[in-house]
Amino acid sequence: MKSTLLQAVNRRFSSIDSESLYAVATLLDARYKDRFFTGGEAARTAKNLLKQEMERALAKASADKAGTRKPEPEPAEKVAHVDASSPPTTSKSSFSSLYDKILEEHDEPAQGTQAAVIQMKMYLKEPTMGELDSPFQYWADNHACFPLLAAVAVKFLSAPSMSVESERLFSTASNIVDEKRNRLTAERAEMLIFLRKNLSLFK
């Protein structure tokens, strides 16, 4: 029975490192970080996924900030004052404007990527937490130190709002411990529920 369960676990979870959800969530859990991946390649892949998520969070924050920014009021029209002693100003050529635009397009993503890499390296260099410590409390305390990572942690460390599995387990228990079998001991009832829920592994 133990060997069958072990084979089933290995079959179902042998490729869990390749699942982006679990990989990023493991990195963001300060109890584990990158210490528990099965290999160096899996850890590097997880870090790349995390960096991409941080860049998305940065882009979203920038877009939200730009959307909430109030437009500046246009200044009242004034007559231009020309100083005869100063040399005439020349407007930028189309080539200079194009040059500035290209620089602007390439500089902003580089800054975002650099910020993501720096935060991730600083976070991973820190020692891990204790097994019984709360990763949620960690991010509440370190939100200001790693703002991009904290934004991604809110997304990946959130528990899904559903109770389907627990409801199914309660239904299984009610089918086993009913009025006609109300003298079952707690140990025997637990064994029967365990076998009922894991019976499919033996098929």
Provide a descriptive summary of the structure in words.
The protein is mostly helical and 203 residues long. Among the domains are: 99 residues, no CATH class; 39 residues, no CATH class. 62% of the residues lie in helices and 0% in strands. It is elongated, with a radius of gyration of 29 Å. It starts with a helix and ends in a 5-residue tail after the last helix. About 8% of the residues have low confidence. This is HAT C-terminal dimerisation domain-containing protein. InterPro entries: HATC_C_dom, RNaseH-like_sf. Pfam families: Dimer_Tnp_hAT. It comes from Nothobranchius rachovii (bluefin notho). One of its GO terms (molecular function) is protein dimerization activity.
